[in-house]
């Protein structure tokens, strides 16, 4: 299918041929019939992407600080490469469209195939022939409304949300600064609400269009007598509210808003402007200023919690369109077929024609039903080896960890062939596939499993998908490398045990730290020990922003299952022993922004008598080191700091090994998976079971407030 994307490194717009999206749970596949081009927003995106690396850095000093802190811990070279990888990405364009439902994901209710829907959201309602959209970002509409007008649903909802932030009542005087698409929609909505409206712009043609749309007064912002005209209109009081819908880096829109507001007036910024407010005017008039965030909150909360969410604002805008309170026919000035996308952006960037509303139309007969799986595969080149081989690799997943860590490490493994890659989004699978040299890409992971030439599959997806994909890959006769965790609940673990026991395939979990050269040197210090070890692993994990998938327990399994498993496995590696019991304690009192399992102390006893403690906290700062390991035994101490520095102290002798960058063992673990002459499958699998079961029992310990035994028979019994 065709999709419009932008390279963030260069700003170049492309029309790519990519795989249709995979229908994930929680959302629907929509065949786009029309998608709206947000001219101002998309032009700003392109202008930003065209800036130099220095200019981009100056525009986001917050990200530069984070990168610097990360570089201090992980090494400047690796962090620089990661930053360049992120810049060299294809960004989907568009965020508002309309179309028909063609497939419904698991867990979705209220939609059926054939429904006419408005779709919203950056990264979802994009300029593409087919899109996958979460169900909470879709609104149904009837055939009373045309697809062209409906495609502007998200843009209209942005106008609705900006008006709500102005906290208006009937009959108030409102000025709209900036008569572009959102401004002209705002004018019409305000008139339908019974407000007296003045539209202001520097473009006289847009002022005249506002007058055609029945604005009470149209003004040119460059008129010398604009203030006197405002005084006449408002009877020398000023506007009750000023809504800025202009997109400008100039301070003029804000200055004008300050001048024409009444005392205790409200200024709402919907567009873009320089936010250098004049304190004297704000103090004298006691003005209020608010920045309106898009179309409202994305989660569709019940009315008693949030009366107007994004979904409800879109629904309201659709209702205004159906009732002809807002008319789009005079605002949509240009249509382009999706094949003409590059002409569209040339017009926008070079301003060849006066344009306001711009939309893409789609005339596509591509079918993506389950019987036509070949439509989801895009070939870059044909495979030179059609015979099944463990060295023929299929990759499932394409997130930041895959792109910045795992795939670059995979590229350094000799004697393997990168055959196919699958991600749920066609554009990401195409970009990653081309960049890392795969033969083809797909948006359906089963295409990797159906490929009879692929002998090894690497799974690097959200945690809740690991179990199903591991089982599917094993049953397809593939060797499997899956990123941690192996699974996120005990029923999944039991099923994996059942399938693995009869598969005869190689299975490895991405517990990479045990393959670090520093870890292996640390372990060698106790090859002939005859006493137990005392071990401490401190993890300064850092807080994760609200809304990140890590905080969604249904997806990640939580931080103990999803990340602490790393450190449990590390202790098993160091001791060559199995955990026998565990006690977990969380911080008490008022937790504030933290979850119960975000800040914990775990104590484990091992079968050889060793004791290990893991202190895992999200309360620290990223400026401090992330991980520190301390191991004590027989008049000796070994420490590992962020897997960059190893310190060995024996008696009065001290030895240090310092790396220029982190050695977390990714290349060594992949080499072991593909090239190991002696692959200790039985031992490894038993350790994976213990590690995974230990994290489950850790949560049990937290729940009951006591020590819990770890007994493998629980999952091995039939």
Task: Report on the architecture of this protein.
The chain is of the alpha/beta class. It folds into four domains: 185 residues, Medium-chain alcohol dehydrogenases, catalytic domain (Quinone Oxidoreductase, Chain A, domain 1), CATH 3.90.180; 137 residues, NAD(P)-binding Rossmann-like Domain (Rossmann fold); 135 residues, 3-Layer(aba) Sandwich (Rossmann fold), CATH 3.40.50.720; 189 residues, Dihydrodipicolinate Reductase, domain 2 (2-Layer Sandwich), CATH 3.30.360. 34% of the residues lie in helices and 25% in strands. The strands form five sheets. The protein has a nine-stranded mixed β-sheet with strand order 31-30-29-28-24-27-26-25-32, with helices on one face. Strands 3, 5, 6, 7, 8, 15 and 16 form a seven-stranded mixed β-sheet that branches. 45% of the residues are buried. Helix 3 packs across helix 4, helix 4 crosses helix 14 and helix 6 crosses helix 7.
List keywords for this structure.
718 residues, alpha/beta, Quinone Oxidoreductase, Chain A, domain 1, Rossmann fold, 4 domains, nine-stranded mixed β-sheet, seven-stranded mixed β-sheet
